[in-house]
Outer membrane protein assembly factor BamE domain-containing protein
Amino acid sequence: MRQFSRQSRSGRLLLAGGLVALALGMSGCTRIRTHQGYQVDKLLVDSIQPGIDNRASVEGTLGRPTFAAQFGDQDWYYVSRDMRALAFSNPKPVAQTVLRVRFDAAGNVTAVDRMGLEQVARISPSGDKTPTLGRHRSLLDEIFGNIGAVGAGGMGGMGGGGSNTGGGPNGS
């Protein structure tokens, strides 16, 4: 009878350990959702009116922009992006909003534009090597290619006799 209870205890421990391992393994397959950037509030964004608002009122309503135009201070951008990833995969954008507020020279709002995920450019790199100009050398050329090049003329050093006694700027 004791032998049977030992086997059932070890079976229970093995089953419990298996369930714990399965639970931990399944937790790695959960979806991870993240938000990056500005929290878009539709009511606040809709309250910005061209011809009525200026830089100060936009900053008071929406806050500081994510970034401003590179040349000049005519456009402010508010960027918001929702991302999703599965376990250890690369995150993919699910939704994106880029709000552009345009100003005139006096600082008054001239337009408010919205752009979404359709404006995101998708690029795919070609291959895993970057093409470069120059010679293509093998591994053996790289290792043994400099044999005999040490001390060759024109490779640095003093070149001629090693003395500077001429009429140059340092010698007299």
Q: What stands out?
A: The longest strand covers residues 75-86. The mean pLDDT is 77. The chain is about 25% helix and 25% strand. The radius of gyration is 34 Å.
